[in-house]
Amino acid sequence: MKFNFKTSYIVxxxxxxxxxxxxGGRIFKIIDPGERGVIFKPYTSGxxxxxxxxxxxxxxxxxxxxxxxxxxxxxxxxxxxxxxxNGLSISMDITVRFNPSFSQIGFLHEQFGINYINVLVIPExxxxxxxxxxxYAAEEIYSTKRAEVEQAIITETKIVLERNSIDMKxxxxxxxxxxxxxxxxxxxxxxxxxxxxAYEFRLQRETSEAERRRIEADGIAAxxxxxxxxxxxxILLQRGIEATTVLAxxxxxxxxxxxxxxxxxxxxxGNN
Length: 272
Hints:
The protein is of the alpha+beta class. Helices cover 51% and strands 25% of the residues. The protein has helices at 5-27, 105-111, 116-133, 138-144, 146-163, 180-230, 233-248, and strands at 28-31, 35-41, 46-53, 56-59, 65-70, 74-83, 89-100, 166-177, 255-257, 267-269. A three-stranded antiparallel beta sheet has the order 3-2-5. It has a three-stranded antiparallel beta sheet with strand order 6-7-8, with helices on one face. A two-stranded antiparallel sheet has the order 1-4. Helix 3 runs antiparallel to helix 5 (146-163).
C-alpha cells in the first residue's frame, strides 16, 4: 500500500483543529486590562504564587488552571446593626473601597480563593465596626466623636486587610440611625449644651469688659494721684510767675500791682 503524504497532512490538520476546538478554551487565555491571573499546576508544582500573569494573551497547558482576578478598585456597601458600649442597638451603613494587591494574588488565592470578598473583606469590615462601636456610647458615635469612631474603624480594618493581601482605599460611615426616642434625647442634650456654651461665652465677654474698665479706671486714678502729688506750692508759684510774665507783655495789660495777688503774685488790672 502506497503511503499518501497528502492524506496524512489532512488527517493531522483535522486532529489539530479537533484538539483546538476541544481544548482551545483551556489553552489560549486572554487577561483583560484591570485583571491578573495565577496558575495552578495540578500534576507538577501546584499553585504558583510567585509568577503573576499580567494582561494580554497567554498559552497554557490544557491540564493547568488559570484563575483570573479583578484587581480594579471595587466597592461594597454594607448595612449592619451594632451595639454601643451600653448595649444600645445602632444601625449603620458602611462603604468600603478596596482592591487585591497585584503582587499578592497567589497568596490571596491560596488562603481565601476567588470568593475572597465574602470570605475575607466583608467579615473583617463587620468585625472591626462592631469592635470599635462597642467602645463608644451611642451619643459619641452619632455626633460628638463620629470622626474619631470612623478613623478607628479605618485603622483597624486596614491593618487586617493589608495583612491578607488587600489594599483598602477608603472606608466611610454613610449613615448612623438610632431609635427615634434616643435620637431626640441626644439632639435635645446637644442643643442644651450649645446654649450653655453660648451663655458661658457671653458671661466671659462681659467679665472681661468689666475687668478692662476697672483697669482703665485704676490707671486714671493713679495718674491723677501722681499729678496731684507733683503740684507743690513752689511749682504752683513758679507757674504763676510765668503766667504773669506772659500777661504783662500782652498789649491788653494796663496796671500791674506787685504783690497784690494771692500768694504774693503780681495783680494785673485794667486793659488798654
